[in-house]
Structures are given as structure tokens and as C-alpha cells.
Amino acid sequence: MENRNTPQLKSGLVALVLLVSATTHAASPPARIVASEAVELTGWLHTEDFTVHETTVEVEVNGVTEVAPVTLNGRFHIELPADAEVRLRFEKEGHLSKEVIVDTRHAQVGDAGQHIRHVKCAVIMELERRMGGLTYAGPVGSLAFDPEGGCLAVTHDRKLVPAKPKHRKAAMEF
User: Fold this and answer.
1) Which of 73, 135, 84, 77 is nearest to 108 (CA)?
2) Of 23, 65, 88, 172, which one has the greatest count of Cβ atoms within 10 A?
3) Residue 55 within any structural domain of the chain
4) What would the pLDDT profile of 62-116 be if each residue is shown by its tens digit?
5) How far is Cα 84 from Cα 58, in angstroms, rounded to an integer?
6) DSSP 8-class letter at 75
7) What is the DSSP letter of 139?
8) Element (H, E) at 160
9) In-domain check, residue 30
10) Residue 133, phi then psi, degrees to nearest 5
11) 60: CATH
């Protein structure tokens, strides 16, 4: 009886299986995501006092605001819907608040948009007492996706303006 388990026969079978599976994958079109989430945002908060205790991340989508949990090492993870403009607000007592706008309208464009996008970022919170009575004029940045290719576009705006007084002092009576 002849043994037909030669190395050439085994490598030929492996090549045939790979060829069949490659043509099967090439024939089917890429799947478009149907999930409601288009972008996963993972971030890390850094504070000048080195604690993230009582730091909040508010997420506003379509007029509804929720608070995202922040871990003890400052990490937060948010799933953002497709075709939305999201406002993120970072707050901590004694630090300047920051806002970031995330526009997910074109997150599903291009090859990368065929999957849920995962964006990573860091947010640094500055102490108010070191800012000389100034605050940010508006959102400090934005994340958006290019309408033609789906590439991530990041802008920064750290313009400072005089802060409005928090409490108005009452008139003194004599």
C-alpha cells in the first residue's frame, strides 16, 4: 500500500483551501455598519493637582445630557451615535472647565468608516488659580470626520478671555 501523505500533497491542499477562501472573501462586498454607534471615544483626564476624584465628563447628544464614568486613573469611554453633533464638557472643582465638540456626521465615510471608529485623546485640566482670572472663550477643540474620505480632523482653540465673576457681591449698607 502506497502512502500518499507527502509534503507536496499537504502543501497543495493548503494552497487550494487558501485560494478558495480568498476568492470567497473577494466576491462579497464589505459590510456597512448598522449599529447605532459610529465612534468610540476613549480619553484620559490629567489634572494639575494629580487627582481625578470628582471630575465629571458630561456628554450632550440631541439635547440629552448624561455623565460618563471616569476611572481612578482618569480614563473615560464614550460610545457616540452616527450623524450627531456631541458636546463634551469636562469639569472639576478648582479647574477651568473645557468643552469639546465631536461631529460624527461623516464617520462612516471611507474604508475606515466601514467599522466603528475608535478615537483616543487626552484632556488636561488647568487650575483656575494659575490662570489669572481667565477662562476659555468657547470649546477648546473639535473632532470631526472629512466628508470625502472620512479622515479625522482635529482643531484646537485655546483662546482665553476674562472670566465672569461667579458671585455678585451685595451692596454694603451703613
Assistant:
1) 84
2) 88
3) yes
4) 999 999 999 999 999 999 999 999 999 999 999 999 999 999 999 999 888 788 8
5) 16
6) E
7) -
8) strand 160-162
9) no
10) 75, 20
11) 2.60.40.1120
